[in-house]
Amino acid sequence: MSRLAPSILAADFNRLGEQIKELENNGIEMIHVDVMDGIFVPSISFGMPVISSIRKETDLFFDVHLMIEKPERYIKAFAESGADSILVHYEACRDLKNTLLKISDYGKKAGIVVSPESGIKTIYPCLPYADVVLVMTVHPGFGGQKMLEKELQKVRDLCEIRKEKGYKFEIEIDGGVTKDNIQVAIDAGTDTIVAGTAVFKGNIKENIKDLGF
Q: From 45, 97, 163, 201, which residue has the greatest number of CB atoms within 10 Å?
């Protein structure tokens, strides 16, 4: 059974606390938090202060996606701010294995993120140390893009190697999810579906229902 992780990047920050409560009231258990530094990706979003602030108001699982250069520098800070999982781009890490181990040492779920430009074979040696693998189905850094459905082949390949090797990592996708393509992602084997605009644009309750959750 897949689950939905709304990305607060698409939320109305004037009503963020209210909208998070609305997610809770509609059965959501996880939110996705996109952290962008303006270097690894062109956009800049938010960081530890925002996470710490909303952490005080909710018990939802915080899935924190670091789109930043050298993320190993900030693992402690994000762990202490309230992240439950910390996901890093292997393209941004100097030492992916050690970064994952560092995240685990803080008692958080450790995740690897793969961008559309990257293959997944490079991350195979680090899969034993990952709790999550996030496949980007858009180019990281901007909301509102159309899903690159060809990236779902990475999900299928990850399902195969997980079964073959007995790994325990969950598979997540992020980008371009709509009510018209979400079933394709679920059928590919995705455990967690990240959606931003599809959840927050318009009526949140109806949008969650339309997405099948």
A: 45
Residues 20 and 27: beta-carbon distance below 8 Å: no
Coil, strand or helix: which one is 11?
coil
Q: Confirm whether 174 is a catalytic residue.
A: yes
Catalytically annotated residue among 37, 174, 180, 187: 174
- Report the alpha-carbon angle 63-190-52, nearest 5: 5
Token reading at 121: 């074979």
| pTM for the model | 0.95
pLDDT range class, residue 161, cuts 50, 70, 90: very high
**Cβ atoms within 10 A of the Cβ of 57, count?**
12
CA separation, residue 138 to residues 9, 126, 134 (Å):
15, 23, 12
C-alpha 43, offset from chain centre: 17
Of the residues 12, 34, 157, 180, which is catalytic?
Answer: 34
CA 134 – CA 106 distance, rounded (Å): 20
Mean pLDDT over residues 20-45, rounded?
93
> How confident is the prediction for the chain on average, in pLDDT?
95
